[in-house]
């Protein structure tokens, strides 16, 4: 039996992987499942802007996300709203210099980036304010709805995540409110 302390996105993802590999896992959570930092996250899957080893792992993780999502959705039958439509970093007159600086830094770090003029941007998203002067498009940035991710990962768990669509695969996941000193 593997004891996994902490029921955030890391703990539940790890439990999911271990359960998928046939291991028995107990997730121990001192408060409520998924109510820590993971509940507040915006859900952007965006490597850090460095050339560090950490960034290499983040890029690899980003590549692995579609397969991870497929496995979670297949197992739970629930959509986690994973999107790979990229990100627009929009600028108005006062912030354009900073956004362009960030854009150039990402390009230097090997990211795919595309500068969009105001007319190009409005062609893409007509609802944007006419005060927007420029945008940096980052097609590699992905996004997940972390709350849907929790519902999907938490199938078969106790507490607020208990759902009628309990699945065999996660049946071993026991989540108990235990305080550790
Ligand atoms: C406002 C905000 C926005 C963010 N936006 C993004 C984003 O867009 N993209 C991104 O990648 N990241 C984002 N992050 C960061 C991301 O939320 C965290 O990196 C991630 O959620 C960490 O997951 P975790 O499972 O390690 O931690 P948590 O979700 O905090 O889970 C840890 C769990 O462990 C439990 N615990 C702690 N100690 C014990 C103990 N002794 N015994 C039992 N249980 C214990 C806690 O109660 C908690 O439930 C954001 C964070 C914040 C705050």
What topology does this entry show?
Layout: E1 2-5, H1 9-20, E2 25-29, H2 37-40, E3 44-45, H3 53-76, E4 87-92, H4 96-108, E5 114-117, H5 118-124, E6 132-138, E7 142-143, H6 146-153, E8 174-177
Helix pairs in contact: 1-6
Pfam family, one: DAO
GO cellular component, one term: cytoplasm
Keywords: Oxidoreductase
Q: How would you explain this protein's 3D organization?
A:
The protein is built from six helices and eight strands, in the order βαβαβαβαβαββαβ. It is of the alpha/beta class and 181 residues long. The chain has two domains: 2-82 and 143-177, 3-Layer(bba) Sandwich (FAD/NAD(P)-binding domain); 87-139, no CATH class. It has a three-stranded parallel sheet with strand order 1-2-8, with helices on one face. The chain has a three-stranded antiparallel sheet with strand order 4-6-5. Helix 1 (9-20) runs parallel beside helix 6. It is elongated, with a radius of gyration of 20 Å. The relative contact order is 0.21. Mean pLDDT is 82; it is low at 156-181. Bound molecules: flavin-adenine dinucleotide. The site of flavin-adenine dinucleotide has 21 residues, from helix 1, strand 2 and helix 2.
The major pleated sheet works out as: 3 strands, parallel
How many domains? Answer: 2
CATH class of the largest domain: Alpha Beta
Count of β-strands = 8
- Count, helices: 6
What is the strand content? 15-25%
Return the CATH topology of the largest domain.
FAD/NAD(P)-binding domain
Bound molecules: flavin-adenine dinucleotide
According to CATH, the homologous superfamily of the largest domain is FAD/NAD(P)-binding domain
Distance between termini? Answer: 21 Å
Return residue spans where pLDDT drops below 50 for at least 5 consecutive residues: 156-181
Keywords: Oxidoreductase
Pfam family, one: DAO
GO molecular function: oxidoreductase activity
Domain FAD dependent oxidoreductase: 5-153
């Amino acid at each position: 039996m593997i004891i996994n302390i902490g029921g955030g996105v890391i703990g539940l993802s790890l439990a999911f992987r271990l359960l998928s590999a046939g291991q028995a896992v107990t997730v121990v959570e001192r408060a409520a499942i998924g109510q820590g930092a993971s509940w507040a996250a915006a859900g952007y899957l965006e490597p850090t802007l460095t050339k560090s080893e950490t960034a290499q792992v983040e890029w690899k993780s980003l590549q692995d996300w579609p397969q991870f999502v497929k496995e979670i959705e297949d197992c739970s039958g629930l959509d986690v709203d994973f999107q790979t439509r990229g990100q627009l970093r929009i600028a108005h007159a006062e912030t354009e210099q900073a956004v362009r600086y960030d854009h150039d830094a990402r390009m230097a770090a090997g990211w795919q980036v595309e500068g969009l003029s105001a007319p190009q941007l409005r062609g893409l998203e007509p609802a944007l304010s006419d005060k927007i002067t420029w945008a940096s498009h980052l097609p590699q940035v992905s996004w997940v709805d972390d709350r849907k991710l929790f519902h999907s990962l938490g199938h078969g768990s106790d507490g607020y995540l208990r759902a009628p669509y309990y699945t065999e695969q996660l049946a071993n996941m026991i989540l108990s409110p235990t305080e550790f000193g």
